[in-house]
């Protein structure tokens, strides 16, 4: 164990349209609750949760950004140092899915090229209101080299899995990078082909 009270520290930033459920996902994971009447996020919010994975303490710094356009210049400044981005849309809102290419341009422009991005379709408890088919989202995510997961912050579906699998993936990448750096300098894109689900089975 290091001097600090953790073995790994990762910064995760949630982005996506207003109202898709970013704050609710963070509150569900960090506090185990679904807040009633959650108001819109103003600027950026910050929470910490430490988890243990395979005996290692992982401190997750989770940044919840406002989806509203008027906060975009503030939220963009948080991309750069992110280890992972959770790009969220609402499966009951076609519009939030259609905006994804716009979000990808933001990522391209402001995030680190090594950032791990997960696409999340939230609100799967609202089955009858679904507007975006899972297959369509999966295809989109794959084409863009993103991981994909569907969640419900309300019913706590896949929320733990989202953050824990992501933490696992980040640990794998960190270990691989230090290994690669010790042996030879990495080629661009090297070390990016670890399967999201396989690294922590
Ligand atoms: N049914 C259902 N409603 C949800 C879920 N997650 C969030 N909501 C609702 O969606 C609305 C918006 O949730 P927020 O978490 O504030 O959304 P946000 O993406 O953080 O919004 P901004 O802060 O404006 O960017 C709220 O009324 C939530 O109660 C979910 O999984 N299921």
UniProtKB/TrEMBL annotation:
It catalyses: GTP + H2O = GDP + phosphate + H(+). Keywords: Cytoplasm, Cytoplasmic vesicle, Golgi apparatus, GTP-binding, Hydrolase, Lipoprotein, Lysosome, Magnesium, Membrane, Metal-binding, Methylation, Nucleotide-binding, Prenylation. The lineage of its organism: Eukaryota, Metazoa, Chordata, Craniata, Vertebrata. GO terms for cellular component: autolysosome membrane; autophagosome membrane; cytoplasmic vesicle; Golgi apparatus. Its main location: membrane. It comes from Megalops atlanticus (Tarpon). Pfam families: Ras. GO terms for biological process: Rab protein signal transduction. InterPro entries: P-loop_NTPase (IPR027417), Rab (IPR050227), Rab30 (IPR041820), Small_GTP-bd (IPR005225), Small_GTPase (IPR001806). It is found in: Autolysosome membrane; Cytoplasmic vesicle, Autophagosome membrane; Golgi apparatus, cis-Golgi network membrane; Golgi apparatus, trans-Golgi network membrane. It comes from the Eukaryota. The keyword GTP-binding applies. Belongs to the small GTPase superfamily. Rab family. One of its GO terms (molecular function) is G protein activity. It is a lipid-anchor. Its EC number is 3.6.5.2. Its cofactor is Mg(2+). The small GTPases Rab are key regulators of intracellular membrane trafficking, from the formation of transport vesicles to their fusion with membranes. Rabs cycle between an inactive GDP-bound form and an active GTP-bound form that is able to recruit to membranes different sets of downstream effectors directly responsible for vesicle formation, movement, tethering and fusion. RAB30 is required for maintaining the structural integrity of the Golgi apparatus, possibly by mediating interactions with cytoplasmic scaffolding proteins. This is Ras-related protein Rab-30. NCBIfam families: small_GTP.
């Amino acid at each position: 164990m290091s001097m600090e009270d953790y073995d790994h520290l990762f910064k995760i930033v949630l982005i996506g349209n207003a109202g898709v459920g970013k704050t609710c996902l963070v509150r569900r994971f960090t506090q185990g609750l679904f807040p009633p009447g959650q108001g819109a996020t103003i600027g950026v919010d910050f929470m910490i949760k430490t988890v243990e994975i395979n005996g290692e303490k992982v401190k997750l710094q989770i940044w919840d950004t406002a989806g509203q356009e008027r906060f975009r210049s503030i939220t963009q400044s948080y991309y750069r140092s992110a280890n992972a981005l959770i790009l969220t849309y609402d499966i009951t809102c076609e519009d939030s899915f259609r905006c994804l290419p716009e979000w990808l341009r933001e990522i391209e422009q402001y995030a680190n090229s090594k950032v791990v991005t997960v696409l999340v379709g939230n609100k799967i408890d609202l089955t009858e209101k679904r507007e975006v088919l899972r297959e369509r989202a999966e295809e989109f995510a794959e084409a863009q080299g993103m991981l994909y997961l569907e969640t419900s912050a309300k019913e706590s579906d896949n929320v733990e899995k989202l953050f824990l699998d992501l933490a696992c993936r980040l640990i794998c990448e960190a270990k691989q990078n230090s290994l690669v750096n010790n042996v030879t300098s990495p080629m661009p894109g090297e070390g990016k082909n670890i399967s999201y689900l396989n690294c922590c089975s």
